[in-house]
Specification:
This protein is mainly β. The chain has 1 helix and 8 strands. Interacts with translational regulator CsrA and flagellin(s).
């Protein structure tokens, strides 16, 4: 499967899951589903943070760059998980403390916790109620 992205470390809370694929929800939508290939019940709503934020600097250490086989940081796509509290879509938030980096060329992914505290761990989207 050429769409499978391998996560050598898994994801936070799902360290035993390694194979995922990205599913587009709607054409042009900044939201995607990071779907586990190991467990069909596990799918995480993710988004491109730069669709919502002008500035979101992330730190990627040398070990992580090697693991992702990066020659250039532009090779990587940045995703963040999105949380939508049940019955409260207006409290939809981007979770910024653990960005997920994907090297589509190498089909590798890594979640890299950000511990410097320079950015809030969440940003609310304040989506309008329909």
């Amino acid at each position: 499967m050429d769409k499978v992205i391998y996560f050598p470390r898994g994801l936070m809370g799902f360290e035993d899951k390694h194979d995922f694929t990205l599913l587009q929800l709607k054409e042009g939508s900044p939201f995607l589903v990071l779907q586990s290939m190991d467990d069909p019940r596990l799918g995480l709503l993710v988004a491109d943070p730069y669709s919502f934020l002008e500035d979101y600097p992330i730190r990627v250490g040398e070990a992580e760059q090697k693991l992702l086989r990066l020659q250039n940081i532009r090779q990587v796509a940045v995703l963040v998980t999105v949380s939508i509290p049940k019955g409260e879509p207006e409290k939809t938030a981007l979770n910024l403390s653990g960005p997920i980096l994907v090297n589509h060329q190498a089909r590798l992914g890594l979640q890299i916790p950000q511990t410097d505290g320079k950015f809030p761990s969440q940003v609310y989207l304040h989506m309008p109620k329909e």
